[in-house]
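REQUEST ID: PR-0412
SUBMITTED BY: lab tech R.K.
PRIORITY: routine
TASK: structure prediction, single protein chain
INPUT:
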Amino acid sequence: MPPLVQSCVTLNLEKSAESLSNLSASVEGFDADLIRVLAGSDYVAEQFSRKPQLLEELIVSDDLYRAYAVNEYRQRLAQSLALVETEALLHSVLRKFRQREMVRIIWRDLTRSADMRGTTADLSALADACIGQALEWLYKDCCSNWGTPHSQATENSPAQPQQLVVLGMGKLGANELNLSSDIDLIFAYPEKGMTEGGRRVLANQDFFSRLGQKLIQALDSITADGFVFRTDMRLRPYGASGPLVCSFPAMEDYYQSQGRDWERYAMIKARVVGGDQLAGAELLEMLRPFVYRKYIDFSAFDSLRSMKDMINKEVRRKGLQGNVKLGSGGIREVEFIAQAFQLIRGGRDPRLQQRELLNILPLLPETVGMPEQAATELKQAYTFLRNAEHVIQAVADRQTQELPIDAVGQARMAYSMDFENWDSFMAELDRQRDRVSEHFADVIAPAGEAPVSTDQSSEWLQLWASDVDDAEGEAFFARHGLDNPPQAWKAFSHLKSNRSVQVMQAVGHERLQLVLPKLMAEVATVDNSAETLERVLLLIQAVIRRSSYLVLLAENPGAMKQLVRLCSASAWFSETLAKQPVLLDELIDQRTLYSPPSKEALQSDLRQLLLRIPEEDEEQLMDTLRYFKSAHVLIVAASDITGALPLMKVSDYLTWLAEVILEVVLEIAWRQLSEKHGVPLKAAGVPCDPDFIVVGYGKMGGIELSYGSDLDLVFVHDADASLYTEGKKPIANSVFFTRLGQKIIHILNTFTTGGHLYEVDMRLRPSGNSGLLVSSLKAFSEYQEKEAWTWEHQALVRARVIAGSESLKHKFEQVRAAILTQPREPQALAAEVVNMREKMRDHLGTSAKEADELFDLKQDRGGIVDIEFIVQYSALAHAHQYPELIEYTDNIRILDAMEQTGVIPAADAEILREVYKNYRSVGHRQVLQNRSSVVSPNELEACREAIIQIWKTQLNS
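STATUS: complete
OUTPUT:
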């Protein structure tokens, strides 16, 4: 035994001393097995230390080495729960049962008394027993309180009692749980109805939601005895924002009308793990057409490739190359190979409609023509990787698949995997992972292009390696066609002399030299080649220490081509990539790079990303949201730069992106606060739904966001401020909603390694910075009615609800309409609007001294704000007569309404629309070149004059 492992065994023997001293019996080979287990598991030693009688009891009962019979876990746990009378005791018994059985399972795994499939089957049976028995106890308890749920009676069928159906997804569904898996569950019930025979009557939905919450608490909550299984409910319809429990018809409707490809992939492994087995079988049969198509469905390749690309980005972004599950050649790639063929051909070949991966792989040679050797190698690699995963997790019962990086951990892992040392283990691991990567590439991943060596490449590398003076360098760039040789040589030589380049390791130098010739050749093809080179080398300098990005460019010529093209067109683009090189991943797939997704696709993509993140890991949630935003802004910018998207669509996409993010941020903030304090009450006994809205003003409200726009927001709730939340730590509703607002701002504003999501401006709320962060709808309405200034009513013209309660949204819209449709005296209104506009120009516009040389697109006379004020004035002056003027919040559609109602001449409306779009287009262009909104006054002189003239006509000023 290696010395490093010996020290761990010695320590764990000391922890287990009392347990060992209690032994009155032993079995053959026990001493050697004990050493092996204590070498591989601190968790087992901890359990022996806490429960000195445990080891003796496992030996005497003959449970330590033997495999359990079918249903033995369930029977044993049922016996333990027979006399349990309280939920607290239920929680305690479940946790102690799990601890005993985990010691036994780890012992059998590390001593190889059970093979990998035996271990995963054991763990899955343990989870099934815990779920099923806990549910059975809780169902009876709930029925005694609230009655038994029944279906609705019909003429032909009396009301029938109903039970919950628990679907196990992922590894649990496939009977493939690992030593520290969480469990993915979905709850469903057959149909709507009411409870009967209880002290109070509940709708089935309410009953099963409460039952589901109790089941999650029984399994997932951490007590003095630990937890049973970490429970994840985010695979259910609509994810974290959906109801906890769905009826069968609702489930069927969701998957048939809204189910995504990744949900097909997840549903392959679905299995009834608790509750009504017969009803659950009916549900799975109902959902089968969604999973397995009747035709051969090759779209699965693209879907799985996209999912794998998403995982690869996470691997690179988080440095997960040492992850035996997600890293290249890992467990996930084997799963993807099998499930690709299941999704493609499972509808035609029922043999492929199985859950367990090791049942599928042997079928692939016959069903899809995979070579026998490939199937065998995949099976061997999968078994090896799962054994390695179990060894990693056995150490501390932690949910991780990361290879150890410390010498002690590496020595222990090599020993537990039966290798002489870490190097020999890694050699075998690399061999197995290389096999998986090769087969994965054959099945799913497109083949990369081989690098091509040319004379020109040699010339660039010679220049890189040579010590030449400025004149020679400039002459070289001139020969190769760059438009400004001195500028190009300066950028190139600056990179050569950079300290980070000089201290690069050999592998980094090799990767850089692989990229440079291709990059230089591509740069030479654009018109502004020297400027482009400066921008691209700024990015290269930023990724020097993370040379995996150089490999990405070298192996993806298409991505390099797009990089050069887009950096040539936009300084903003190159600087954004230099700050966040992880976004280079987005350049690989040109199908998505120039095709921004719809709002619905954005919602689905974000849900997929968040599914893999523990809900309690706020830091990771925030980083993922920031990456998601940055990646999609980059895609919009790429489409904008290349002309694939017109101006109005650019703003639409940027606004949709912000809306999707705000919806999720509200969900996260609500969940975190309600878990701690309970849900606020709208009225006595009535929980909020959430009766809270996020209102967007300004560009957000007007669907006119640009790159880098901040968000003007207002928060409104509609609950009784005097009531309290219903939780373990109740707080006043007013405090809850204030903290909710603060949490939302914190998630949006906080600066992390990925930057911030959005700058948030709350100054448009009632009473501005001196007012409450969150207003009740009543207070908001009274303020707008009695205290608001005219400019605040102007702002309300562009206000719309972005996220939150649908019922409160309708109430807010009624309040907004009531305020905006009040009759106003036109001349007095015009005077106030003009007065406010002049104050803004004085404070924010170009000074009189510079007015002849500069024009601020937004703030100067004849600029964007003048157009916005004309629109707002017209809405306020005429909405009482023409309510259609306030139906929409964006300026273009309000101008359309102004024209249609005759509030403004058609010719003037057309001028305002076209100039407004022209100004915003110029503004976008300025942003993409990292320039301010100030331009030459001559550039837009005709536009300015036209707006000034209409301003005079409309506002008599």
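NOTES: Confidence is low (pLDDT under 50) at residues 446-453.
REVIEWED BY: pending
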